[in-house]
Amino acid sequence: MKNFLHNFLTELRAIFGDNGVLLIMVAAVIVYSFVYPLPYAREVLREVPLAVIDQDNTAMSRQLIRMVDASDLVRVDRRAQGLEEARRLISAGNQGGALVIPAGFEADILQGRAADVAAYVDAAYFLTYRQVMTGLVKAVRTMSAGIQIRRFEAQGWTAEKAMVDRSPLNFVDRPLFNPYLGYATYIVPAVFLLLLQQTILIGVGMITATRLERALAENVEDTLRGGPGLRILSRTAACLALYEIHVLFVYGVAYPAWGLPQLAGLGNIFLFLLPYLLASIMMALALAGLFKTRETSIVMIVWGSMLAVLVSGFSWPVESMPHWVRAFAMLLPSTWGITGGLRLTQAGASFHQVQTEWFWLWGLTGFYFVLAWLSVRFLQNQPLRQAD
To answer: 384 falls in which pLDDT band (50, 70, 90)?
Structure first.
């Protein structure tokens, strides 16, 4: 117990006494919790500027322009004289797209013929493309429906019958877990969970590499006591104590501050994330032996962050991944932590419904404990071995 307490305090001193580690394991979690969601604070891209080329200049063309401008997704920002001018505006980033209403638009409608409009949209930015196209399509379809209903009424149909015949089946679209279809609600909760794992990996790698460098330079053993098992448990306890505070901060402060949906109580969140944090710490201790310098851990883990996001399953369905990618993803705590954590906090799943992910995280904790034991045992005598 005395050695455990010594190692526990030594690990905490290594975290709070090293500016680099302090920046990663403490400051980064706090700062990222408020800085990363900032660009997505408005959730949905709205009022994208749109150029209009009205070659018809009739009452109906002006009505369509007003309907487009009434959409909350786009804003008629400029009347362009021609397609070349609109193309220059889009290329310069001043407009998100252009709506072209050709000559004869009203005449075709009045004569019962199909009328065409053209949309030129900046496809370099997916969100801009999606919002402009959605706003234009909704406005055009709404106008088309109104024209068809008036034609039915002109034939003597009642307004109710015209409405039913125009749209016999009504599609009701009601998003359950992301009602605003916001980007922050979609990506930020998953990034918060990944942030916990990645800062643990970097911080533990930096601490371990620093101790190894010092031991090699001074030809002495590090300041930790006891065998591999005791070292692992004491270091894990120190990191776990710190990151439990981070969990409280993320879900108790950052979530309410950004208005993110949280459908689970803090008790269930702490219970679910306990093996997630343990598995992440064990994996960090197992991988720490691969990092010979502090800088190596930063470069390798930061490079692997995007890979961890891609294989976690929240941005791309795991069913569409190759089998070997899915097998690799199953070895990462973030895969199960993000999947179960999002279902628990965002989709309102009960703890019983995320038990599969929870048990997998406990399994990974045991798996990485064995690897960590082998790694720590190897590193424990590494300075003396190289000195000999």
So the answer is: very low
Q: What ranges make up the beta strands (E) of the chain?
A: 48-54, 74-79, 97-101, 118-121
pLDDT, one tens digit per residue, over 78-121 is 888 888 888 888 888 889 899 999 999 899 888 888 888 999 89
Q: Which of 318, 364, 368 lies closest to 339 in space, CA to CA? A: 318
Q: Do 269 and 345 touch, CB atoms closer than 8 A?
A: yes
Whether 228 has a pLDDT exceeding 80, the answer reads yes
Question: Cα-atom radius of gyration of the chain, to the nearest Å?
Answer: 29
Other beta carbons less than 10 A from residue 195's beta carbon:
19
Task: Give CA–CA dist 184/258, Å, rounded.
Answer: 9
Measured distance CA(157)–CA(172) in Å, rounded: 26
Residue 252 DSSP class: I
If we measure between CA atoms, which residue out of 148, 203, 201, 189 comes closest to residue 27? 203
List the single range of 258-262, 306-310, 321-325 with lowest mean pLDDT: 306-310
DSSP assignment string, 302-346: HHHHHHHHHHSSSSS-GGGS-HHHHHHHTT-HHHHHHHHHHHHHT
Nearest to residue 24, comparing CAs of 253, 305, 292? 305
| Residue 181: CA count within 13 A, CB half-sphere | 9
278, 289 Cβ separation under 8 angstroms: no
> For residue 189, what are the β-bridge partners?
none
